[in-house]
Write a structure and sequence with these properties.
mainly alpha, two-stranded antiparallel sheet, 15 helices, about 60% helix
């Protein structure tokens, strides 16, 4: 690591470490946005960060299409690989959630995954964006403009929501196409992404993060022309992610991660269990430990992590049971 150039993106097993860091931040932001009941005795408004976290997750999902072999081969093979990646987790989770009386289940829970709009949305984007995997700058501009027009059209067709357009139960399906396309483009042209300084990218990223909340506040919950200014929040939202990615790609950040085995393990753990963390948290967030503030956050988050890892184990067990190979306990327990 000592010989890394000033700005580089180090990879391990075809994974981008800077992208791993970005996804970890996304997981933490999204989870925090669901912690409203944990903040109820302090300030529920602190349960925020969901929209930037969602946008970051979509950016990473688009970017990841350019890594490894996930997008190699035919379109049909690509779709099959994504189904194999997602479906076993939801099958196992629905069965166990029903066994422990956390939820009633029907065929929709196994096929349509109605509770998890996030997963539905990403999968649909995979289906439509895959043909543009090797897009050039002109194609990128057309897709970006098209994604903004789609979002604006949906805002015009639907009535004013009682929350941000990015959080509306229907409109949010159209808000994150732009970060997804932006992530795909950045992945294709990753070698051209340059950092402007050791700490400046991080500072600019924080400023853009704050700018998103400022811009969104002008149109949020408005029922006049101001409502449509929310679409301008796409600018600081996407740039915030880009600058944070550039900051995480600096050699001193990468060296710190790679040299610290515990930190590296934690980052990989969060990254590779991100789907499981997202799936289980809705049924585990509780105010039962609020009297122990601020330890209640740590307790609930640890419960989520343990359950996410258990879901990972049983999903691997389920997959190996259906395969022709013998059970491999080490493979079942391993995170990779």
């Amino acid at each position: 690591m000592a010989n890394l150039p000033p700005h580089t993106t180090h990879t391990v097993r075809e994974r981008n470490i800077a992208l791993d860091l970005l996804k970890v931040i996304a997981v933490l932001l999204i989870t925090n946005s669901h912690f409203r009941v944990l903040y109820q005795d302090i300030n529920p408004a602190l349960a925020t960060g969901g929209v930037p976290g969602n946008a970051m997750f979509f950016f990473v999902s688009g970017f990841a299409l350019t890594l490894g072999t996930s997008a190699k081969g035919s379109y049909i093979d690509f779709v099959k690989n994504k189904i194999r990646r997602l479906l076993p987790t939801f099958i196992v989770w629905n069965i166990f959630a029903n066994i422990f009386s956390l939820k009633d289940i029907s065929w929709k829970d196994f096929i349509l995954i109605p509770e998890y709009w996030f997963v539905q949305c990403i999968f649909i984007m995979y289906l439509f964006i895959y043909p543009f995997l090797h897009m050039n700058k002109k194609t990128f501009m057309c897709l970006m403009m098209g994604s903004v027009l789609i979002m604006l059209t949906m805002m015009l067709l639907f009535s004013y929501p009682d929350r941000s357009v990015f959080n509306d139960i229907t409109l949010r399906y159209f808000c994150y196409l732009t970060p997804f396309i932006f992530g795909l483009y950045c992945g294709i042209h990753n070698d051209k992404i340059k950092s402007c300084g050791r700490h400046r990218d991080g500072l600019i990223g924080l400023i853009l993060f704050a700018s998103y909340f400022v811009v969104i506040s002008f149109g949020k919950c408005k029922e006049n022309w101001m409502y449509y200014t929310e679409i301008l929040a796409l600018i600081p939202l996407n740039l915030f992610i880009l600058f944070l990615y550039r900051f995480f790609s600096l050699k001193n950040i990468l060296k710190t991660v790679m040299d610290n085995k515990l930190l590296f393990f934690c980052i990989r753990f969060f990254f590779l269990l991100s789907l499981q963390i997202y799936v289980v948290q809705f049924y585990l967030i509780t105010d039962n430990y609020n009297r122990l503030f601020p330890l209640n956050f740590l307790i609930v988050f640890l419960i989520i992590l343990v359950c996410a890892y258990c879901l990972h184990i049983f999903t691997r067990l389920f997959e190996q049971t259906l395969s022709k190979e013998s059970w491999n306990i080490r493979r079942i327990l391993h995170i990779d």
